[in-house]
Specification:
nine-stranded mixed β-sheet; Double Stranded RNA Binding Domain; 22% strand; pyruvate-formate lyase- activating enzyme; five-stranded mixed β-sheet
C-alpha cells in the first residue's frame, strides 16, 4: 500500500493504524498524492483533516474539523487524521476493532494518566469519542487499573524484581517469536549455560546488595524452564536462595510451562527451591489445535500435569490460554475456558494471538485475516464474562503489536492470587534485574520515571562465548543508581 502524507509527518502512528487491518502489508511513503489502487492519502489542510482510501477498486473518504482536545495543534491534527483514516478502514473492511485507533501497549496506564490529570469523565470521553474505544474496553481499563494500583502501591523506591531467562523449549510453537531454542538443536548448550547463568545470578546479587536494593518478586521464565532437569533447576534456585535475601519476597514464580515437560521430580525441585507460584500453559484444550501449533502434548496431559502439581503442594497455579489460534473456533475456545476453570486454577491469563514476523506462522503465510479478528474478539469477550462469573477477575492488561483483532492480553485471578511480577514488569513500577540469554535489565529511577535498559545477548551461544561482556554491562546497574 502507498501512504501519502500531505502537509504532515505522522508516518509512525498512521502506519500502525493501517497494520491493525493489514498487519503485513508492505507500506511505501510519499509526500505527494499517488494515483491507482491500494493508496491511502492523509491530508491536513488548514484546520481540516481528510483521509482517502482506494482499495480493491473502491474509494472511501472521511474528513473532519480539527478541534482543540490536547492543547497542542500538532497532536490534535494527528488525532483527527487518525480518526479519518480509521473511518475509511472500518468502512472498507466492515470491521470495527474494539480498541479503536489506540495502538499503544499499555492502554490502562494511558487511561489512568489522563484521569489523574484531567479527571475520570474527561478520560472516558476521550477514549470513547476520540480514540474510538468501545465501552467494554473502557470498562476493562477501569477494572484493571484498580488491580494494578493495589499491586504497584506495595513497591518502594528501593524495590526490585529478579527475572531469570531459560530460553529453551521442547519444540518451537508456530506462533512463537521469542528467542527460544528447541532441545533437539540446543541441548549441547544447556550444561554450560546453567553454569554461567548461576555466575550471573551471583554477580547480580552482589550488585543489588551493594546498591541497597530490596527484592520483592522472583520470576523464572522462558522459553520453558522445565526443559531443564530437576538437578539443573535445583542448582539455579539454590543459587538464588544462597545469594539473595528472600525474606522480603512476596512472590516467587516458575513457569512450569508445557505439560509434556512437567514431572514430579521437577515439581518437587521447584517447590523445595522456594517457588510459591507456577504457571502451566496449555494455550488450548483442543488436541487438533495443539497439533497445528506444534505442541507435543494433549489436553489430557494438561489435566494430568495440573493434578500432579496439586499433589506436590502447589496452591497458586496460573494457566495461559491464547485466543485466535490457527484452527481454533469460538465453540472450541469456549470449551477450553470451561475446561480450565473446571480444574480450578488460582489465575488464568488470556492472550490474544500476536502475529510476529519471526514466527513460523507468519513465515508460512498462515496468519489470520480480518475474519479471525472478529472471532478472537468474541473469544476474549466470552473469557471475560465466564471468568468473572467464576470470580476470577481481571487485574492487569497489556497489548502487543500485530495482534489478531488489535486485541489485548489480560491476567485474571481469584482475589489475593494476582501475579505481582506481571504488573511490575508491564507498568515499569520498579527495576527488573534480569539474568540469562535475551534478558533485559530495566532500571527505574527511585521515586521517579527515568528508565534505562541493559541488554544481554540474545542467543545461548552468544551468551556463553561473550559472557565476560555481559558481566561488564552489569556494572551499569551501579552507575545508574549512583546518579541518585
Amino acid at each position: 500500500m502507498k501512504l501519502c502524507l500531505i502537509n504532515n509527518d505522522f508516518k509512525y502512528e498512521l502506519e500502525k493504524l493501517i497494520r491493525i487491518f493489514l498487519p503485513f502489508e508492505k507500506i511505501e511513503f510519499f509526500d505527494f498524492v499517488q494515483n491507482g489502487d491500494a493508496v491511502a492519502v492523509a491530508e491536513i489542510c488548514g484546520k481540516t483533516a481528510k483521509a482517502t482510501l482506494c482499495l480493491n477498486g473502491r474509494e472511501f473518504v472521511s474528513s473532519c474539523e480539527i478541534t482543540p482536545v490536547n492543547d497542542d495543534f500538532s497532536k490534535d491534527s494527528e488525532l483527527f487524521l487518525a480518526i479519518c483514516l480509521f473511518n475509511c478502514l472500518t468502512d472498507c473492511f466492515n470491521y470495527l476493532p474494539q480498541w479503536g485507533i489506540l495502538t499503544g501497549v499499555r492502554p490502562a496506564k494511558l487511561f489512568s494518566r489522563i484521569a489523574k490529570s484531567k479527571g475520570l469523565d474527561f478520560a472516558e470521553n476521550y477514549f470513547k469519542n476520540y480514540l474510538m474505544v468501545s465501552d467494554k474496553k473502557i470498562a476493562l481499563c477501569k477494572e484493571t487499573i484498580k488491580g494494578e494500583n493495589a499491586i504497584t502501591s506495595l513497591s518502594k523506591g528501593d524495590s526490585f524484581s529478579l527475572y531469570i531467562s531459560i530460553p529453551f523449549c521442547p519444540t518451537r510453537c508456530n506462533y512463537c517469536s521469542f528467542v527460544s531454542h528447541s532441545i533437539e538443536k540446543a541441548k549441547g548448550y544447556i550444561p554450560q549455560y546453567v553454569e554461567l547463568l548461576c555466575e550471573e545470578i551471583k554477580l547480580t546479587a552482589q550488585i543489588a546488595k551493594a546498591n541497597y536494593l530490596k527484592l520483592m518478586t522472583v520470576y523464572i521464565g522462558g522459553g520453558t524452564p522445565t526443559t531443564l532437569s530437576a538437578e539443573q533447576l535445583t542448582k539455579i534456585m539454590l543459587t538464588v536462595s544462597d545469594n539473595f535475601d528472600l525474606s522480603g519476597v512476596l512472590e516467587y514464580t516458575v513457569e512450569a510451562g508445557r505439560p509434556d515437560t512437567i514431572t514430579k521430580e521437577k515439581l518437587l525441585a521447584i517447590k523445595q527451591g522456594g517457588a510459591t507460584r507456577i504457571s502451566i500453559n496449555p494455550q488450548t484444550m483442543n488436541d487438533k489445535v495443539l497439533e497445528i501449533i506444534g505442541r507435543r502434548h494433549t489436553a489430557n496431559d494438561t489435566v494430568s500435569a495440573f493434578k500432579l502439581s496439586r499433589e506436590c503442594g502447589f496452591d497458586n497455579i496460573n494457566m495461559d490460554l491464547i485466543a485466535g489460534l490457527l484452527g481454533d473456533d469460538f465453540e472450541s475456545f469456549k470449551n477450553t475456558v470451561k475446561s480450565v476453570v473446571k480444574l480450578d486454577p488460582e489465575s488464568v491469563t488470556v492472550h490474544s494471538l500476536s502475529m510476529k514476523r519471526a514466527s513460523n506462522l507468519t513465515k508460512n503465510g498462515d496468519f489470520p485475516e480480518i475474519e479471525m479478528g472478529k472471532t478472537a474478539s468474541d473469544m476474549v469477550d466470552f473469557a471475560y464474562n465466564y471468568l468473572c462469573e467464576n470470580e476470577i477477575l481481571p487485574y492487569y492488561m497489556y497489548r502487543q503489536s500485530k495482534t489478531v483483532g488489535n486485541l489485548e492480553n489480560v491476567g485474571y485471578a481469584k482475589k489475593g492470587f494476582e501475579c505481582l511480577y506481571n504488573v511490575y514488569i508491564m507498568d515499569e513500577t520498579h527495576s527488573i534485574l534480569a539474568c540469562g540469554a535475551s534478558a533485559v535489565t530495566k532500571l527505574r529511577e527511585p521515586n521517579g520515571d527515568k528508565i534505562e535498559r541493559i541488554f544481554n545477548f540474545k542467543y545461548p551461544y552468544e551468551y556463553i562465548s561473550r559472557f565476560s561482556e555481559i558481566c561488564d554491562r552489569k556494572q551499569g546497574i551501579t552507575e545508574f543508581y549512583n546518579k541518585f
